[in-house]
Amino acid sequence: MGNRLYRSAKLRMATLRALVTGGAGFVGSHLCDRLLAEGYSVVAADNLLTGRLSNLAHLRNEPRFEFLQQDVCQPFDPGKFDFVFHFASPASPVDYAKHGIETLQVGSLGTFNTLEVARRSQAVFLLASTSECYGDPLEHPQKETYWGHVNPIGPRSVYDEAKRFAEAATMAYRRYHNVNTRIVRIFNTYGSRMQINDGRVIPNFMRQALRGEDLTVYGAGDQTRSFCYVSDEVEGILRLSRSEEPLPVNIGNPCEFTILECAQEILDVTGSRSKICYEPLPKDDPKQRKPDITKAKTLLGWEPRIELQQGLKMSLEYFRGEVAALDANLTSPQRD
Ligand code: NAD
C-alpha cells in the first residue's frame, strides 16, 4: 500500500507541467534545469530579447522540454500547466536602459497575458519580482512589509515601476480571479549564463579582472550589495512555489559586501593584478541592499548555503569562457 502511494506520488510528480517565461535567460534557464531534474515537463517561452538559446542548448534532446519563441506581451495559449513561472523581463541595468519601453510592457501586458495562462489552467502562478521594488531603501535590511523608496520618473523607473505594477496585477488576479499566486522578490543573483556585458557588478568585475583591465568602482565603493548564488536562488523559488504563501517573499543572500570588498574578492579568485579605478555614481544607484530573510527561513526553511567566494570560484570557468569568446569576436577579422 505504502509502495503504491509512493509510486502514484512519483507518477503525479512526473506529469507536473511548468511554463517558464523568460526561460532562455540567466535565472529562467537554471529554473528550467531544476524543474526538469525534479521530474516536471517544462515549456520555456522567450522572445530572446536579452536571453540566449545557448542557455538551453543542453536540453535539445530532452523529451520533457520544449522551447517556444514567444513575445509574452502578445496574448498566447501554450496549453495547460500546473505551475506558471513569470520570469520574462530585461533585468540588468544595461538591458532595461536599452529596452525601457519593452521592460514596461513585459511587466504590464506580459504579466496580464501570463496571468491569463495561469487562470485558464488553474495553475500556481509565481512572479519573479525584485529587490528594486524597495528602490533606494530607507529601511535596512529590507523586510517584505517595507513599501519602498522608489523614484517613479528616474531612469531606473522603467524596471522598478514595471515590477511594482506586476506585483499589483498579480495580487489583483488573486483577489478578483482567485488565481493561486506567489511573489518572489529576488535580490542580486549571480552565476553561469549571466551575460558578460550586462553591466551587473559581478560580470563587470570578472570581465575586467580576467582581461587585466582596471575594475571600475562607482562612487567611493562603500555602497553595499548582497549576492546570491543562482542554485540557492532557484531552491528558494521552488520552495516558495510549493508553499501556500500569497504575499511577497525575499529570496537573496543577506551577507553584505561593499562594492570594494566584492572587487577584492574577484581579484583574489581570479588571481588578477588589475587595479581599481573610480567613476561617478550613476543616478538613483541604491546605497545599500540587504534582504531580511526571516520570512523565507521560517516559512520555507530556506537560507543560502553558498558563500560569495565559493560561488565566484564555481562561476570562474564560465566567465573565462565568455571572456575568451568576447576577445575572439573582437579580434576576428571583419566580414563585409
Ligand atoms: P535575463 O535577461 O537573463 O532573462 C530574462 C529573459 O526574459 C530573457 O531570456 C529575455 O529574452 C526574456 N524576455 C524579455 N522580454 C520578453 C518578452 N516580452 N517575451 C518573452 N520573453 C521575454 O534576466 P535574469 O537575470 O535571468 O532575470 C530573470 C527574472 O528575474 C526577471 O524577471 C528579473 O526581473 C528577475 N530578477 C533577477 C535578478 C538577478 O539578479 N538576476 C534580480 C531581481 C529580479
Q: Could you describe the 3D structure shown?
A:
- The chain has 336 residues and is of the alpha/beta class.
- The chain has a domain at 3-191 and 229-253 and 291-305: NAD(P)-binding Rossmann-like Domain (Rossmann fold), CATH 3.40.50.
- 42% of the residues lie in helices and 16% in strands.
- The chain has helices spanning 2-15, 26-37, 93-98, 100-121, 157-177, 201-210, 230-242, 259-270, 294-300, 308-331, and strands at residues 17-21, 41-46, 65-69, 83-86, 124-130, 180-186, 189-190, 215-218, 224-226, 228-229, 249-251, 256-258, 276-279.
- The longest helix is centred in the C-terminal third of the chain and has 24 residues, at 308-331.
- It is globular and about 55 Å long.
- 44% of the residues are buried.
Please provide the ordered H/E string of secondary-structure elements: HEHEEEHHEHEEHEEEHEEHEHH
- Helix/strand/pairing class, anyone? alpha/beta
Q: Give the biggest beta sheet.
A: 7 strands, parallel
In round numbers, the mean pLDDT is 93
**Bound small molecules, which ones?**
nicotinamide-adenine-dinucleotide
Fraction of residues in H or I helices: 40-55%
Choose one word for the global shape: globular
| Side-by-side strand order of the widest sheet | 3-2-1-4-5-6-11
Note poorly predicted spans: 1-12
Q: Multimeric state of these chains? A: single chain
Count every beta strand, where a strand is a DSSP E run of 2 or more residues: 13
Name the CATH architecture of the domain at 3-191 and 229-253 and 291-305: 3-Layer(aba) Sandwich
- The termini sit apart by 70 Å
- What's the CATH topology label of the domain at 3-191 and 229-253 and 291-305? Rossmann fold
Strand content: 15-25%
Number of H/I helices: 10
**CATH homologous superfamily designation of the domain at 3-191 and 229-253 and 291-305:** NAD(P)-binding Rossmann-like Domain
